[in-house]
């Protein structure tokens, strides 16, 4: 669940950067050749070392995001046993990260505007560090919950600050590929949590979560602030110095600098959008599409299955959830890369519908496994069917339903409402994530087959929603997309 890609700085200065934020990792070599000749010359004659290093430092935050999200899956049984937690208490612990992230996401625009991109990342690292230490030292559920809430707030801010920073420092011809590393590092972070959680204790895993946070804090001392933000707040001298560090000391930055200043001046002249403006006739369909896709993304159950994967495998009949969570981890990363490759080749609509069909199949297979177990039928096949179903589900979600809704959302809103619309969409996304993660254990206790079949039904509704409502945005300019939506 990657919210970092969903909204612009409220005053609009990051719109140009986020417009290209979701370009896939692998892009056509002929794309924007004419428009980016100067960028290519700049990269060839200058140095992109600082851009790459700054991106690496930034995605340490994305990795921290992933480790936080993936923490509860391999640790549920151990934490409940050590701290004597009830199912309800652990469900609250698991879901509090999404509540904290909602608060972080809502305030992230103002924070990044007020103290800068580096300042926001530094602050969010502090919250994550406090959260992990609280979890490590916890002796009861209240301390555990406080730690989860703090780390959730931290990743809520990180999820916005990191992709905005990357988009604003990267040259045009590298922006898409560098921005995609944000999503990839979130998935890798979650996978590492799954793998480490199968071999180390839950307290040690909490300490391991500190590593990317400290890497981010230390790295921030050696990278420049976003030139766009410096220009926005009127720090002309610092703006020139930061851009020079990013582009190389022998590169002529005058043209790029004048473009940035002119663009910021134009955006600041646009009227600020109020929340109620989103529900005007010309914006309603875009809101329905953006919010609808996020609702679909969450209601297929990814946060329930992901947060509690280990216990799901145990419930299916495994003596331990380690094998299943390891397979889960190794499935996510390559399929996320594949989805990035396919995004501009197959189109958004086909990819998300195929993905939803895969989650439908995976949910149905896993539900069928629990049904067979409950009726003592074909018991030898139950674990195999459950693992196969969950892995198919994860693979399908990683290819389409995970990244594509964020891509479409970034394309369908007009520039002057994108920040406000992004706030709404991210709130809906995290609210859905909280509802699913909090209710998953209760629903599984009520009826394991019924829970999985319900997710399968939501996958079917997703296919119908995309087929009837969502336009294809591949290969269209933002103006063409607006014309298609409003026609």
TrEMBL record:
UniProt GO cellular component terms: membrane
Matching SUPFAM superfamilies: MFS general substrate transporter
Membrane topology summary: Multi-pass membrane protein
Domain called Major facilitator superfamily (MFS) profile: residue spans: 54-474
Keyword terms of this UniProt record: Membrane, Sugar transport, Transmembrane, Transmembrane helix, Transport
UniProt GO molecular function: sugar transmembrane transporter activity
InterPro entries in alphabetical order: MFS_dom (IPR020846), MFS_ERD6/Tret1-like (IPR044775), MFS_sugar_transport-like (IPR005828), MFS_trans_sf (IPR036259), MFS_Trehalose_Transporter (IPR050549), Sugar/inositol_transpt (IPR003663)
Major localization class: membrane
Similarity annotation: Belongs to the major facilitator superfamily. Sugar transporter (TC 2.A.1.1) family.
Protein name: Major facilitator superfamily (MFS) profile domain-containing protein
């Amino acid at each position: 669940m990657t919210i970092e890609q969903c909204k612009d700085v409220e005053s609009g200065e990051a719109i140009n950067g986020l417009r290209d934020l979701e370009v896939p990792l692998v892009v056509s070599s002929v794309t924007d050749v004419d428009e980016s000749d100067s960028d290519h010359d700049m990269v060839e004659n200058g140095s992109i070392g600082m851009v790459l290093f700054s991106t690496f430092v930034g995605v340490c935050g994305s990795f921290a995001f992933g480790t936080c999200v993936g923490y509860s899956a391999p640790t549920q049984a151990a934490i409940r046993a050590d701290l004597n937690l009830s199912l309800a208490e652990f469900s609250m612990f698991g879901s509090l990260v999404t509540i904290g992230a909602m608060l972080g996401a809502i305030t992230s625009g103002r924070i990044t505007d007020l103290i800068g991109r580096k300042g926001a990342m530094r602050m969010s690292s502090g919250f994550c560090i406090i959260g992990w230490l609280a979890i490590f030292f916890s002796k009861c559920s209240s301390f555990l919950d406080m730690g989860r809430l703090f780390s959730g707030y931290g990743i809520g801010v990180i999820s916005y600050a990191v992709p905005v920073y990357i988009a604003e420092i990267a040259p045009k011809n590298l922006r898409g590929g560098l921005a995609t590393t944000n999503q990839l590092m979130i998935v890798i972070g979650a996978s590492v949590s799954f793998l480490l959680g199968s071999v180390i204790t839950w307290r040690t895993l909490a300490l391991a979560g500190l590593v990317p946070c400290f890497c981010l804090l230390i790295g921030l001392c050696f990278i420049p602030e976003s030139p766009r933000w410096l220009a926005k707040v009127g720090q002309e001298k610092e703006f020139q110095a930061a851009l020079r560090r990013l582009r190389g000391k022998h590169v002529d930055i005058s043209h790029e600098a004048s473009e940035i200043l002119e663009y910021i001046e134009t955006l600041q002249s646009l009227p600020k959008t109020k929340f109620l403006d989103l529900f005007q006739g010309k914006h309603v369909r875009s809101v329905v599409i953006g919010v609808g896709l996020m609702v679909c993304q969450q209601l297929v159950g990814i946060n329930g299955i992901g947060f509690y994967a280990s216990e799901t495998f145990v419930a299916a009949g495994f003596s331990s959830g380690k094998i299943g969570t390891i397979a889960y981890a190794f499935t996510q990363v390559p399929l996320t890369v594949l989805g990035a490759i396919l995004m501009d080749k197959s189109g958004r609509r086909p990819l998300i519908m195929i993905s939803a069909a895969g989650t439908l199949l995976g949910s149905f297979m896993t539900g069928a496994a629990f049904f067979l177990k409950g009726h003592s039928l074909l018991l030898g096949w139950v674990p195999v069917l459950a693992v196969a179903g969950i892995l198919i589900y994860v693979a399908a979600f990683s290819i389409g339903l995970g990244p594509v809704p964020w891509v479409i959302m970034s394309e369908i809103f007009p520039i002057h409402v994108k920040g406000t619309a992004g706030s709404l969409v991210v709130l809906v996304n995290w609210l859905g994530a909280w509802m699913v993660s909090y209710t998953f254990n209760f629903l599984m206790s009520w009826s394991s087959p019924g829970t999985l079949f319900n997710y399968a039904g939501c996958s079917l509704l997703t296919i119908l929603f995309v087929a009837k409502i969502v336009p294809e945005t591949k290969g269209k300019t933002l103006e063409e997309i607006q014309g298609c939506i409003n026609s």
